[in-house]
Amino acid sequence: TCDDSDTAPVADSAHLLGFSDEILLHILSHVPSTDLVLNVRRTCRKLAALCLDKSLTHTVLLQKDYEASEDKVKRLVKEIGRDVQQLSMAGCYWLSGTTVEHVARCRGLVRVNLSGCPLTSLRLSKVLSALPHLRSLAIDVSPGFDASQLSSECKATLSRVRELKQTLYTPSYGVVPCCTSLEKLLLYFEILDRTREGAVLSGQLMVGQSNVPHYQHLRVFYARLAPGYINQEVVRLYLAVLSDRTPENLHAFLISVPGSFAESGATRNLLESMARNVALDALQLPKSWLNGSALLQHMKFSSPFYFSFSRCALSGGHLLQRVIDGGRDLQSLAGLNLSGCAHCLAPDCLLRKAEDDIDPAILEALADRAPIPPTMRAVPRGFGKKVRIGVQSAPFPGPAGPQPSSVFWSLLKNVPFLDRLELIGSNFSSAMPRNEPAIRNSLPPCSRAQSVGDAEVAAIGQLAFLRHLTLAQLPSILTGSGLVSIGLQCQQLQSLSLAHLGLMGKVVYMSGLSDMLKHCKRLKDLRLEQPYFSANAQFFQALSQCSALQRLCLVSRSGTLQPEAVLAFMARCLHVVVCHLFTGESLSTCRSLQQALLRSFQAERPALNVVVFPLLHEGLTDVIRDVPMVHLDEVTLFKSRVAEEPPNLWW
Questions:
Q1: Torsion angle in degrees (nearest 10) through CA of 181, 183, 184, 190
Q2: Are β-strands 551-555 and 534-535 bridged in parallel, bridged antiparallel, or unpaired?
C-alpha cells in the first residue's frame, strides 16, 4: 500500500515511495502492462504519474501475460493506446479477433507482433490501414487468406514496412509482395501436407498469384521449415525470385531445413551470385548444399555474428582455415552451430571416428582464449555437443571439491554469466520432436553422453545466472543428486527440459527431481520426457512448490498418471495455463481427465490450454494440430534452441 500524505508513519528509507523515480521506474518496468495501468496506477498519485511515464508506455509486451483477458486488453488500449509505439501480442491465442482489432487505436505504432493472433484478411486490412507509422510487422497467414481483400490504405502501410516476420500455414506469398521496402524478412513454413479433409496441398496454388516478392532492399533473409514436402516446394518459389537478382546489401542468409533438401538450378545460381557479389555476416544452409561443395571457399564474410553448419561434413581444419580464417574474425561472432558435425572439433585425420577426442586447439581458436595449460590437454572426457561461442568470460571460483576435467567443463567454468545451456546426446530422438520426424527406435547414447553423470550435472550449479536448461539422453545419471545442486544454486532458472536421463527402463532420479523442484521458485516451464515415468502424488506435490509455474508438458511412453493428483496440482498452482500430458494411459482416462480440468479451471484462466492424450494413439497428430503454435515451440515439442534459433534476428 502507498500513502500520499506528508506524514507517512514509515520512514522514507523503508518505504517504497522513498526510492528515487529512476529506481521506481526500473521496478515498475518488470510489472505486466495490464497490471501496471489498470491496478498499480490506481494506488496513489505518485505511482499514477510514474505508471504513465513514456518509458513504460512506449513498449507493451502482452505475450505470455496469460492473465490479460479480453476486457483488460481493451481497457489497456483505451488508456494508453496513443502512447504505444511497440506492441507484442505474440501467442495471445486466447484473444478474439474483435479484441485484436483494437490495435488500430494505437495509431503511433512503429512495431507490432500479432503472430498467433486470429486475423482474417479483412481484419488485418482494417488494423494496418490505421497504422501509418508502422515499420515492423509479424503475422500469421492462415488458410483463407486473400491479399486482394487488403485495402489501398493497408497496402500503403505495408509499402513502408522494413521488417516482416510471416508464419505460413497455407501456400501463399502473404503480404510480402506489398512490402516493397523490405530489409529484413523472416519466414516460418508450418504448412501441413494435407488438409483436415485429407486433400493434398500443392505450392502450385501460388503460381497464379499476380504479385511476387520484392527483395531489392533486402539485408536479412531467414527461412525455417517444418517437416513436409509442401514447405520445401513453397520456399523454392520464394527463392526463385531471390535468385533472379541478388540484393547487393544482403548480409545474412539463413535457411533451416529438417532432413534433406535437394539443390536446384535456381538455388545454385543464387549461391554463386552471393559468393561473387556480397559479404555475409550470417550463414546457414541445408547440409546437402554444403557437403561436397567448394562453396565455402569462395564465400566472403565481413563481421560474422552467426554461422550454422549443422549436420555438415565439416572438418576442424576446414572450419578454421576456410571459414573462420584462423580465428582472426571472431570478435563479432555471437552464435556458432556445429551440432551433428562429427569431425568439426577433431583434428584432420581420415582414420578418426566420430567418437574420437575433441582437439583443444580448435576450441582455443574458436573461443579466442589463451592456450589451455598442458595439464588440460589430457585426453578429454567432456561432452561434445554444442555451445554458443563469443560470450565474454571471466574466471571465477567454482564450488569446492574436485571438478570434471575436460575441454567442455573448462569452457563452462569461464562463462559464469551463461543463461542458456543444453547437454543433448547426439543420438537423442524425441517421441515428439519440433522439426524432425518422430523416430520410435532410438539409437544408443554416444560415448560423450555416457561420460556425463551426477557429478558433471552438479557442476552446472556454478552457473548462478542460468535461466534455461536442457538435459537429454544422459544415461550415466544414477541418482539425480546433481539436479538438487542445480535447484539449490541456479535460483534464476525459468525453463527446464529433461529427457531420457539414466537407464531407459527405470526412472532412477525421481527423488532427486522432487528435491530439486522444491527450490525452483522461478520456474515457469517444465518439459519432462521419460519412458515409464509415474506422474504420481509425490511428483505433483513437489511440482506444486514451483509457485511461478505456467506451462507443463509430460511425455512418457508406457507412463502413468494419477488424475486426482493432477487436479490437486492445478488447484494449488494458480498460474498454470498449459497442461499437456502424453502417457500410456487409456483414451477414456485421458478424455475424462481433460474434461475435468477444463470444467474446473477454464472459467478463471482464459488462456488455459489442456491436452491429455495417449502418446502412441493414432489420433495424436490431429490433436497436436489444434495446439497453439506458441506451446509447440516453447514446451510441447522438443527442440534445441541453441542450435535452431539464430540470435538477434527479431526484436
A1: 40
A2: unpaired
Q: What's at 378, amino acid-wise?
A: A
Render 261-304 in DSSP notation, one character per residue. Answer: ----HHHHHHHHHHHHH-EEEEEE--HHHHTT--HHHH-EEEEE
Q: What is the model's pTM? A: 0.85
pLDDT at 308: 86
Q: Which residues of the chain have pLDDT under 70?
A: 1-14, 203-212, 292-294, 314-330, 342-408, 435-442, 642-651
597: three-class secondary structure by DSSP: helix
Burial class (CB in 10 A: 0-12, 13-18, 19+), 436: middle
CA 166, chain centre distance (Å): 16
pLDDT, residue 386, reads: 39
Contact, 370 vs 360, CB < 8 A? no
pLDDT at site 365: 61
Q: Which three cell numbers stand for residue 480?
A: 539425480
| Residues whose CB falls within 8 Å of the CB of residue 551, separated by 6 or more in sequence, listed in order | 524, 525, 526, 576, 577, 578, 631, 634, 635
Give the whole-angstrom CA distance, residue 561 versus residue 543. 14
Rounded Cα–Cα distance for residues 168 and 187 (Å): 8
Contact 556, 532 (CB under 8 A): yes
DSSP state of 219: -
CA distances from 172 to 150, 177, 202, 235 (A): 15, 10, 10, 10
Q: Whose CA is closest to 186, among 87, 92, 254, 237?
A: 254
Tell me the pairing of strands 525-529 and 551-555.
Answer: parallel
Look up residue 46 and give its three cell numbers: 505518485
Pairing mode of beta strands 86-88, 111-113 = parallel
Per-residue cell: 523: 520456474
Show the beta-strand stretches assigned E in 465-550: 468-474, 495-501, 525-529, 534-535
List, as one string, the DSSP characters of 336-397.
Answer: EE-TT-TTTTS-S-TT--TTSPP-HHHHHHHHT-PPPPGGGGS---S--S------------
Which of 193, 293, 209, 277 shows the shortest CA–CA distance to 242?
Answer: 277
Please name which of 234, 300, 293 lies closest in space to residue 268, comparing C-alpha atoms: 293
Distances (CA, A) of 210 to 128, 147, 178: 22, 10, 12
Give the span between the Cα atoms of 380 and 408, in whole angstroms.
8
49 by Cβ neighbours in 10 Å (0-12 / 13-18 / 19+) ranks as: exposed
Burial of 5 (0-12, 13-18, 19+ CB in 10 A): exposed
Distance CA(324)–CA(320), nearest Å, equals: 5
CB-based burial label for 584 (10 Å; 0-12, 13-18, 19+):
middle
Q: Among residues 84, 139, 99, 134, which one has the least CA distance to residue 116?
A: 139
